[in-house]
Amino acid sequence: MYTLAIIKPDAVKSAKTGKIIAHLEEAGFVIRAARMVRLTRAEAEAFYEVHRERGFFRSLVEFMTSGPCCPMVLEHEDAVRYLREVIGATDPAEAAPGTIRKLYAESKERNAIHASDSEENAAREIRFFFTEAELKRLWADRLG
Ligand code: CMP
Questions:
Q1: Per-domain residue ranges for the chain?
Q2: pTM score, two decimals?
Q3: DSSP string across 73-103
Q4: 102 near 96, Cβ under 8 Å?
């Protein structure tokens, strides 16, 4: 099973990308795909469409377009639920000890990493950043 994670601009800027990827691999995730991207305003608005009416929407779009971020397709049994457990609560102040947000997030908005919140959204969010063809090609002729 697959889910989408995004290492957010706060964590990329503070050089936490490698530590977060190491944390995810140590937790047992297989990184199926990853790239560094700079979201446009239109892309960030589309990605967070469900939050359009929320008070934090404009600020969230500003933040997500403020620098590069790193979307990744992660594989693990029960990937959507397990990734949300590994990253911790949205607000780092409420995140459990040892979770990625507890370790690396700055605030409720600048919270280091995104994770899909349902199977349906994981499929939508993976398609947002990666094509079916490139995902197939990445692993088609792998060794071992
Ligand atoms: P994410 O898991 O990417 O999903 C929506 C994002 O909106 C969330 O992480 C935070 O970055 C941001 N967010 C959610 N709630 C708030 C809030 N109350 N104030 C500011 N940002 C928020």
A1: 2-143
A2: 0.96
A3: EEE-TTHHHHHHHHH--SSGGGSPTTSHHHH
A4: yes
Q: Is 139 in the pocket of ligand 1 (CB under 6 A)?
A: no
pLDDT in tens, 85-111: 999 999 999 999 999 999 999 999 999
Instruction: State the sign of the Cα–Cα–Cα–Cα dihedral 75, 77, 81, 83.
Output: negative
Sequence-distant (6+) residues with CB within 8 A of 110 are: 8, 10, 63
Question: CATH for 2-143?
Answer: 3.30.70.141
SS3 assignment, position 37: strand
pLDDT in tens, 19-61: 999 999 999 999 999 999 999 999 999 999 999 999 999 999 9
121 lines ligand 1 (CB under 6 A): no
Catalytic: 51? no
CA distance 102 to 111: 9
